[in-house]
From TrEMBL:
This is Dihydrofolate reductase family protein. It comes from the Bacteria. It comes from Geodermatophilus arenarius. Residues 4-174 form the Bacterial bifunctional deaminase-reductase C-terminal domain. It holds the Pfam family RibD_C.
């Protein structure tokens, strides 16, 4: 059975991106980029939605020598979309146009290769609500993007209890937090 890790990078106020800011809010450092390269070298399958696919495949085409993007290009990827059409141009990418939750449930049951997400806020929300997420991994960037932030990561999520299982500091400023999530029916103690 495969494990599923949901991965996000966020500003301190919970945004996944911000208008006018560079990628990684301009704060990626050698330690963090090295970890991304190691994480990308693992035998795993990356799951994403159409918006993330368009963005990441575009970056990979523009800067193919970027170590993180080259690693992602080499990895097995599954894109869930009803708007994209096969064949997809990014190497090692399979398109699934059916129910993402059902497809991921089947992938977890029959597979041995770990699964992880990249971006794809609504896909991750659906997988978490369905109880399919084994680990929730967040890298917090030390910025607040209240005026320019886009893609609020946690909007529309169910209530979730998080048990911290790992943490790490990159480049003296980026905080990795890894949790085991438990979807709650409501606030603890509510009847």
């Amino acid at each position: 059975m495969s494990d599923l890790v949901v991965d996000f990078i966020v500003s301190l106020d919970g945004y996944g991106a911000a208008g006018g800011w560079p990628g990684y809010w301009g704060m990626e450092g050698p330690e963090y980029l090295g970890w991304l390269g190691q994480d990308g070298a693992l035998e795993q399958t990356v799951l994403m939605g159409a918006t993330t696919y368009r963005l990441m495949s575009g970056f990979a085409a523009e800067i193919p020598d970027d170590p993180g993007l080259a690693g992602l290009t080499a990895m097995s990827k599954v894109v869930f979309s009803s708007t994209l059409r096969a064949p997809l141009s990014w190497a090692n990418t399979e398109l699934v146009d059916g129910d993402a939750v059902a497809a991921v449930r089947a992938m977890k049951e029959r597979g041995t290769r770990p699964l992880r997400t990249v971006g794809s806020v609504s896909l991750c929300r659906s997988l978490l609500a369905a109880g399919l997420v084994d680990r929730y991994r967040v890298v917090v960037f030390p910025v607040i993007t209240g005026a320019t932030g886009t893609d609020r990561v946690y909007d529309g999520y169910p209530d979730v209890a998080l048990d911290l299982v790992d943490s790490r500091l990159f480049d003296g400023r980026l905080q990795l937090l890894e949790y085991v999530p438990t979807v709650l029916a409501g606030p603890p103690g509510a009847t």
